[in-house]
Amino acid sequence: MSHREPGPESGKLISDEQQWMAPGIQRLATMAGIAMESGQGCLLQDADGQTYLDFMAGVGVASLGHSHPRWAAAISSQAAKLSIGSFTSAPRLALLKLMASLLPEPLRRVQLYSGGSEAVEAALRLAKAHTKKFEVVAFWGGFHGKTGGVLPLIGDPFKQGWGPLAPGALLVPYADCYRCPLKTSYPGCGLACVDMARQQVEASSQGSVAALIVEPIQGTAGNVVPPPDWLPAIQQMAREIDALFISDEMITGFGRTGKMFAFEHSDVQPDMITLGKGFGGGFPVTAVVATETVAEESHPWSKPSSSSSSVGGNPLAAAAALATLETILEEDLVENSRVVGAHMLARMETWKERFPFVGDVRGKGLLLGCDLVSDRETKTPLPTKLTHKIYTECVRRGLLVMAYGARVRINPPLVISEEEADAGLDIFESVLADVAPEIG
Ligand SMILES: Cc1ncc(COP(=O)(O)O)c(C=O)c1O
To answer: Which residue's CA is minimally distant from atom 13 of ligand 1?
Structure first.
């Protein structure tokens, strides 16, 4: 296993850039200490020519891997023709048609944006416009973006320091079974967390819940998979309070979990879904998709210029998303995600026997996670000093994986082969084995 240290070119680019770059860029980039030059498939090459296997995919963005030739060709040919404007264009029409063919019948009305938070904000505005109500239920551990309207929905201390936040957010427990907030266990619990959520809403709501928004699998929290009957129970809860049910599929959409959309793992029918990240394969394009009824009865969202944006769904964005979705279908990447993901998860299951500090492994498709703990009984998260060491050591051995926290996230590009997956897991296991003595 060859060793990589940040080379001189990376060092120079980073130190030059630091004169102007504002602080606060992604931890995974600053910690790695390398500048990137190029990428192809699941491999990235740094400015000094050293290669890395990518288990991050730009946090779920690189659905097709890096620089997929078909995607690159579609963007460059559209860029040479027409990029700008909100007039109807052939690629936008083709994109909407294709999306309609992938979604269940009532989800038909699409509005396009360029940022994930922007799309979630638009979904919430639409929910308020349709229901004429103003509260939103979201979940502990949840993440829906960093802009003003969605900050209050963040289900952890990340949102501290930006107050006062917009009122109306009601946060209730997610079914994070490994770290069950009720200290009970599934299925014996009878989904006690849903009862608690119901009571919490009852106690704190003003009786005006417009929507319940949920990640069908929580990404930022650590690729946390709820039990199969949880999402239907949550949808039922939304129906009881006459609130719209929104599935935020930003990370989970377009094959990431081994189905086209993660809500399809359960028997639910969202009123709206939000899409982004892997949707454009790296081009910034996101969307809200709503049922016909919700979108039609949505004044003032439906007023001219009320739901649109400057670059959302322009011909270039539409061509990029179209090429991404066509490639996902033609290369059968949803199935690849399911098959390679299952292979990886089976191998990860063995970690619980091999490494006493692996407390939990989980996942669906290529959205996989594990919890590193210093004590299995107490489930105390592994200290940051050690997880940072694991992360940096993975980078040095040529694997980019979101292992800088105790909840490790593994989400490679959907094009990954079983051989590449095994090569990455070999590296990760070698790092775990080498840090094991330090953990004790
Ligand atoms: C589920 C979910 N929703 C929304 C967002 C916000 O997307 P963006 O970073 O494009 O604003 C994210 C980003 O990680 C996300 O994971």
So the answer is: 145
